[in-house]
Design a protein that fits this description.
Length: 251
């Protein structure tokens, strides 16, 4: 179980490449609250340092969160295809195991650092800070952080990103925002992904998904997207562009 929520059975996080690792000893029940507070306090401090470094380098950092398989890496591949001539892009990939996603990103000609978390179900700011040391920040405009596929824990850990984007795939059901409110409430943008599959999924109702999302995050924008077919990609790129310009003006 992880020391935050009790879901990490392992003891070690690893960022491949620079040998970073931390041991986590499961605390006794009476200690858990204090450990939570200390853990999140330390995490937030590291996240603030990450954000400051990124901002100093005029980098816009986007944290992508969703269930496993909702289409995060596919969206990144599409985004790179569309934006690489305009922006310098880098990606930090989070998964329990394998370098698969980083390989997919590198195949697009973009630098990617793979973090493998062992059994941990989320990235944290220390892991991201360590991954940042492996990137030349002077050569990046947009940094995407693909979080571990999970609708719960990633929402609790600030990584130093500037914006959170959450994907909800049509294959997951339209009631997820109400069932997992924390992550949807933390989002700056919701992407309903794989809408090309809608004709096959008569149970998924776009209006129900929008209502469910509005019930937890009324003022947050939502886009319908198919990274495969291209629906909504123009709007997604426009959101990214606007966000980057906005952050540049305010820094
Ligand atoms: N039909 C359809 N399939 C998609 C779309 N986007 C992704 N997929 C498929 O969904 C599966 C998972 O996609 P990934 O991009 O690997 O998902 P992910 O969120 O990165 O997965 P994890 O990193 O394991 O959490 C793959 O088989 C993709 O081809 C889409 O827009 N439409
Ligand atoms: Mg992925």
């Amino acid at each position: 179980m992880c020391t935050n929520c009790g879901c990490n059975g392992g003891k070690q996080y690893t960022v491949q490449g620079d040998g970073f690792s931390v041991d986590h000893t499961p605390p006794g029940e009476t200690v858990i609250v204090d450990v939570h507070r200390a853990l999140l306090f330390d995490n937030d401090q590291q996240a603030a340092r990450n954000r400051q470094r990124l901002t100093e380098h005029n980098i816009t950092a986007i944290n992508l969160m969703s269930s496993p398989g909702s289409g995060k890496t596919t969206l990144l591949e599409r985004t790179i295809d569309e934006l690489l001539t305009r922006y310098r892009i880098a990606v930090i990939e989070g998964d329990l195991e394998t370098e698969n996603d980083a390989r997919r990103i590198r195949a697009k000609g973009v630098e990617a650092v793979q973090i493998t978390t062992g059994n941990a179900c989320h990235l944290d700011a220390v892991m991201v800070g360590s991954a940042l040391q492996q990137l030349d920040l002077k050569l990046i405009d947009l940094l995407f952080i693909e979080n571990v596929g999970n609708l719960v824990c990633p929402a609790s850990f600030d990584l130093g990103q500037h914006r959170n984007v959450t994907l909800l795939s049509t294959t997951e059901g339209d009631d997820k925002p109400e069932k997992y409110p924390l992550i949807f409430r933390a989002s700056d943008l919701l992407l309903i992904s794989k809408i090309d599959l809608l004709p096959l999924l008569d149970e998924f109702d776009l209006q129900c998904a929008a209502d469910s999302f509005a019930s937890v995050a009324a003022d947050t924008p939502l886009l319908q997207l198919s990274a495969k077919r291209g629906d909504g990609v123009t709007q997604w790129l426009a959101w990214l562009n606007d966000t980057h310009q906005q952050l540049q003006r305010s820094s």
